[in-house]
Amino acid sequence: MATKTLNVGMIGYGFMGRAHSNAYKQVGQFFPSDHKVVLKAACARDEAKAKAFAAQWGYESIETDWRKLIARPDIDVVDICTPNNLHKEIAIAAAKAGKMILCEKPLSMNVAEGEEMVAAVEAAGVANMVWYNYRRIPAVTLAKKLIDEGRLGKIFHYRAKFLQDWTIKADLPQGGQGLWRLDVAVAGSGVSGDLLAHCIDTAIWLNGPMKDVTCLTETFVKERLHNLTGKVEAVGIDDACLFLGRFANGSLANFESTRYARGHKAAYTLEINGEDMSIFWDLHDLHRLQVFDYKDEAKIRGWKSIHVTDNSPDHPYMANWWVPGLAIGYDASFTHQVADFIAGLESGTPAGPTFRDALETQRVLDAILASAKSHQWVNV
Ligand SMILES: NC(=O)c1ccc[n+]([C@@H]2O[C@H](COP(=O)([O-])OP(=O)(O)OC[C@H]3O[C@@H](n4cnc5c(N)ncnc54)[C@H](O)[C@@H]3O)[C@@H](O)[C@H]2O)c1
Fold it and tell me: What is the pTM of this model?
């Protein structure tokens, strides 16, 4: 039985507001701990929408101004699920109020903002984490285990792609609800901060820091009607972003992201080639890790597909779910993240990525965008 409560104040009720609320509701059932998560308050600017969201997900109360939510003494943890341009202001105010903070990715619009956020949470001494959830898909977590055990040997290549196709239409507007990702003033960047940020976080976690990068970006549709101003305005985001780089361990990075890959919806794949082993993972087949082990006996050597659903500690997180062979989904990565955050509070060893960890991803993002602009290699 949990003896402590963790009162959540949720800001934003969109895609991530729902994903995180679902995780808060699941976590106590599947990952029991000493903390009971309480959905204390949901915040949205529109009162009717806030009430509807609170009723649907079981929040006890609502706020229509995030500042009021942060000022409430009954809120322990502030969850920032707003567009990127609000992360900094909310996080710094929450840190000053002594709240724990779970912030959506990317941490910030740029490195300068991220540094201010790291300074604020560290000065306040509040627990903090960024929702780079793909680390906690069991097959990806297993990849980390294999790498940490040294099974890949020397790593030569890290290859990642995140492909979508939802902005191909030239008459799609930019800005406002649902389309803020196309508005650079709100998103900070395009596919780099939105999609590659995930790939970079996973890469740094699995393969260590990056040293330098060279990047190519393209904005295929140069002008779009802006939903908020009613005017046709220049598009400031990167529609596609391809970069090469070097990791500190000597391996080479090859990353690509676009929203113009017709037929692809959320095609996040990663492949790592080491001297002794290669591994491949695909979000569309998220419970499988493909492995080629050069140390296998030659006559049966080949790519194998591990269904990461074994009910033993060998397969991360899975002992807490169903029986061997039964898959879990995308949503579970958020549940795992909350479970690890709580475990970090209880053990005193914070779960990552903390704001400071996520700042490393921000440094790579700033470097690739600077390189795309200058056409030069840029140190991270
Ligand atoms: N971890 C992931 O896989 C993942 C996936 C999607 C989005 N994200 C990140 O999550 C964040 C939100 O993205 P989303 O897809 O949920 O967006 P969304 O558009 O679905 O939701 C954003 C929410 O923020 C609310 N909001 C905006 N301004 C506000 C304000 N001043 N006060 C209170 N609420 C406000 C909106 O009303 C909306 O409910 C972004 O930073 C995004 O990059 C992360």
Answer: 0.98
